[in-house]
Amino acid sequence: MKPRMSMITLGVSDLEASIKFYEDGLGFPRMESPPSVAFFTLNGTWLGLYGREALAEDAQVSSAGSGFAGFALAHNVTSEEEVHEVLDLARAAGAVIVKEAQKVFWGGYSGYFKDPDGYLWEVAHNPFFWVGPEDES
Question: Which InterPro entries does this UniProt record tie to the protein (predicted)?
């Protein structure tokens, strides 16, 4: 198998509120999609938002759950200043900042926010890690 992550789908409790958070608040570009789901183009992958109950039903698992989900999504940026900019954007969109931007033990700089459904997003600048093709000059 060739390792690849083509899409991340989040089961959300209020689809319209989550669409507003990601599209209007964070500026994610939304793709054309049916009313029961929303897709956003990211650099190299897609983000899908789908009702939590419907996503659990599709996977044939229980939708019950709370607390730490055991994972975090990460948004890597090119500078410490950009970490602050993204966290400020998320805060203005209604995110809860759970860890303010700061130097971290591995030599980078990061902070965390929770989206409207409590999904953790790390915003990080890793000086040892290439961010992506848009950063090539």
Answer: Glyas_Bleomycin-R_OHBP_Dase (IPR029068), Glyas_Fos-R_dOase_dom (IPR004360), VOC_core (IPR037523)
pLDDT of residue 60: 79
Contact 71, 118 (CB under 8 A): no
Q: By C-alpha distance, which of 90, 116, 94, 71 is closest to 26?
A: 90
Q: Are 78 and 135 in contact (CB under 8 A)?
A: yes
**What's the mean pLDDT in 17-45?**
95
Q: How many CB atoms lie within 10 A of CB 137?
A: 2
Dist CA 14 CA 22 (whole Å): 12
Q: Where are the beta strands (DSSP E) in the chain?
A: 7-12, 30-31, 37-41, 46-51, 73-77, 96-103, 109-114, 120-125
Domains in the chain, ordered, with CATH?
A: 7-59 (3.10.180.10), 73-127 (3.10.180.10)
Q: Averaged over 66-76, what is the pLDDT? A: 81
